[in-house]
Design a protein that fits this description.
Blueprint: E1 5-14, E2 17-27, E3 32-36, H1 43-50, E4 58-63, E5 66-67, H2 73-76, E6 80-83, H3 85-88, H4 97-102, H5 118-130, H6 146-158, E7 164-168, H7 176-191, E8 197-202, E9 214-219, E10 222-228, H8 229-232, H9 235-242, E11 246-251, E12 254-259
Parallel strand pairs: 3-8, 3-9, 6-7, 7-8
Antiparallel strand pairs: 1-2, 1-4, 4-5, 9-10, 11-12
Helix pairs in contact: 5-6
The chain binds adenosine-5'-triphosphate (ATP).
Adenosine-5'-triphosphate binds near residues 44 and 203.
Length: about 260
């Protein structure tokens, strides 16, 4: 199995609820995917499967050539960069920003080992600089604004030089300037041929960065459509996904949507 992600009939059931139903999805090297869908569609659950942090109830989930259930997930997880709100909540507010980034190489949150390689520290600062957050390296995480925290989380997710990078609503809670800054930076990462395969979850087409290649539209745990953005992100598909008649517009390499009036 050479795909970055290969899901076949992936289904997640909790109690009476089916969170994901029969998902077939393949992500290949070099692809940059956006996962779009309304609240409760199952986007975070899908990302949890991709992050090897959840197993499917039924079906097969392949991650970086390994099948979940037949691999030690602790070997797999360092190969995956994940930035999510639930992970961010676990970062101690008093942690120094450069430590928040560098501890990713140990797969831990919170600095509990004293000896990090100097090279790790240099890389952490380099990544922070690439995200426009180099000047924050010596601050404590709890003192940062939401936008600054998002940039630190992304630097942290890149720290292990992952083969797959997963971003769960990276622009949530940002003001317009912060969102545009982050979308621009994510666009730069997406345009870098050396960057890992990317999967970004969002509710808003306005947050799709330039250079993203593919989209998966999810509604009530089921795939509405998936494939190259240019042919899959249509008014009809988006309207079906959100259950509302939408006008979708493309402006160069960005998108916007609003209800049809
Ligand atoms: N352990 C659980 N038991 C039952 N239902 C659950 C469980 N975890 C999640 N759900 C439900 O599964 C559905 C999908 O949740 P998920 O967080 O994946 O959606 P989402 O698309 O990421 O939503 P949002 O955009 O609001 O973050 C939701 O209706 C949620 O309430």
């Amino acid at each position: 199995m050479s795909d970055v992600l290969a899901l076949a009939g992936a289904t997640v059931v909790r109690g009476e609820s089916t969170l994901l139903s029969e998902i077939d999805w393949e992500v290949e090297e070099g692809q940059r995917w956006v996962v779009l869908g309304p609240n409760g569609a199952g986007k975070t659950t899908l990302l949890q499967l991709a992050a090897a942090r959840m197993h499917p109830t039924r079906g097969v989930v392949g991650v970086l050539g390994e099948v979940l259930g037949a691999v030690d997930v602790f070997d797999l997880r360092p190969r995956i960069g994940l930035a999510s709100a639930s992970l961010a909540e676990r970062i101690p507010p008093r942690e120094r920003v450069s430590d928040v980034v560098v501890t990713a190489s140990w797969g831990v949150v919170g600095r509990w080992r004293e000896s990090y390689d100097r090279l790790d520290h240099a890389r952490a600062v380099e990544l922070l600089e690439a995200l426009g957050a180099g000047h924050l390296a010596d601050r404590t995480y709890g003192t940062l604004s939401e936008g600054e925290r998002k940039r630190v989380q992304i630097a942290r997710a890149l720290m292990t030089d992952p083969e797959l990078m997963l971003l769960d609503e990276p622009a949530a809670g940002l003001d317009l300037g912060g969102r545009e800054d982050l979308v621009g930076r994510l666009g730069q990462i997406a345009g870098d041929l050396e960057a890992p395969a990317l999967v970004m979850v969002t509710h808003h087409v306005e947050e799709i960065p330039p250079h993203f290649t593919d989209v998966l539209l999810l509604r009530e745990g089921q795939v509405v459509a998936h494939g190259p953005i240019e042919i899959t992100l249509t008014e009809a598909n988006l309207s079906q996904t959100f259950g509302i008649d939408l006008v979708l517009e493309q402006h160069g390499d960005r998108w916007s949507a609003r209800a049809r009036t």
